[in-house]
Amino acid sequence: MSKSTQAHLSVTLNKNLSLAHKEQTRKQKEYYMGAKLIEIGINPQQAVYRWSLKTNATEEIWTYSAYWGESKEQLLSGHLPLTGSELIDCARANASQGLAVTTQLCGYDGDTVAFEAALQAAAQEMGLAIASLPDLIQSKGLDVAPDTLSSL
Predict the structure, then answer these.
(1) Exposure b/e, 11-39, CB count within 10 A at least 16 = b
(2) Is-contact 112 119, C-beta < 8 A?
(3) Is the dihedral of CA 83, 89, 94, 96 positive or negative?
(4) Candidates 3.30.1070, 3.40.50, 2.60.120, 2.60.40; correct CATH number of 1-77?
(5) pLDDT digits over 68-89, tens only?
(6) What does the domain layout of the chain look like in residue ranges?
(7) What pTM was estimated for this model as a whole?
(8) Range with the lowest mean pLDDT among 19-28, 54-63, 69-78, 127-136?
(9) Distance between CA atoms of residues 62 and 89, nearest Å
């Protein structure tokens, strides 16, 4: 039996939840992943982590993945870059970490030019108007709420 070199945790959230609640849930999953890695004898600091996000009409499905050993080497090598909707999901979920980190986590090693070209191609395939990573961040939408209860 081969030894596993990756782990994944998913959580489904209602799209209407506040940004603060979503962020708290994400932090909980990161903590839980670290605890699980320690439990199976993996140093959490030796792993590489990547978020992915899939959305539908009412929900967001966040998946937190950890890679170590052979899987980490493959992920960071640039030999198996993500494409299509998987690339969009990964880029959207990791965009806040910046272009260089997102490029690497999406499997493009340090080749930001190839990453951005693939991102544009994937967006075009899906009918999305995305020219670069900042456009993807802005396309996530905003949580809108009144300043006070009387402003409803």
Answers:
(1) eeeeeeeeeeebeeebeebbeebbeebee
(2) no
(3) positive
(4) 3.30.1070
(5) 999 999 888 888 899 998 899 8
(6) 1-77, 79-142
(7) 0.73
(8) 127-136
(9) 9
